[in-house]
Amino acid sequence: MTDWPLPRDGIDSVVTIGKFDGVHIGHREVVSQLRARANGRRVVVITFDRHPLELFDPARAPQPILSIPQKVEALLGAGADRVVVLPFTTEFAAMSPDEFIDEILLTGVSASLVLVGSDFRFGAKGAGTIETLIARGTPAGLEVVRLDHVRVDGGVKVSSSTIRGAILAGDVETATKLLGRPHRVRGVVVQGHQRGRVLGYPTANLEEDNEGLVPKAGVYAGIIRVLGEEFFGAISVGRNPTFNDVTRDQVETHALDANFNAYGATAEVVFIHWVRNVEAFGSVDDLIVALDGDVVNIRGMIAKGTLHL
Known about the structure:
alpha/beta; Rossmann fold; Elongation Factor Tu (Ef-tu), domain 3; 2 domains; elongated
């Protein structure tokens, strides 16, 4: 038996399985439906440490919307009692449907019910289907429940790819609608060029290897959570084109009406509204005028109640 990170504790469980990238409203509905059927049983979500394409065709693998820790936190917040993250390795990909049912579902998490979408596939080369689960799981006491896709606005299918596309296009409002919450990234606050302080708009800059998908370059209205507090923020994503001295899109946030030193602390940046594109201004004075305008715009959102903590 392979040493998968499974409880193997005999606790009767209801289970769902999937990539759950982003943990959007559809994913959370799955967990909600699972909990509604639990009747005192443990609610277990099985997910994976990477997209299958990262193993089979890395060049085509989509960027994850959330890091693994973020995903686990979101699934627990959605109602899971336990989240099992399986390494999607060559060995795992080669498992037969029977092995998956026996080793993962029955022995691994003691499943008595599994809830999956109609298009669920499992086992080597996706040989297992929901019909396979029913045919081979039912004799072992495994109840299989089929759940259709969640749709919004009278028919729009909620998908991770749609959300990913919205984030990468800067359409964080659509991402919020489909996620059921604003998109966020987090990371350690590091020292930048400290130019914002000179301009009158000091920022908290996130490290390069932050968690969560970074949106399209631009200026956003949102929130920064750091040092146990949260503040309204003017968020900039980009490479400071006015100065042309940054080689990657960095996330930096000016916290409104706040003054703190957060170097070395972990900060979470929440993207709520698109404000404008990043521009290369002709002078520092022109940049300051634009920054002034951004803050005025964001304060207007706060006053209207479209931006709130």
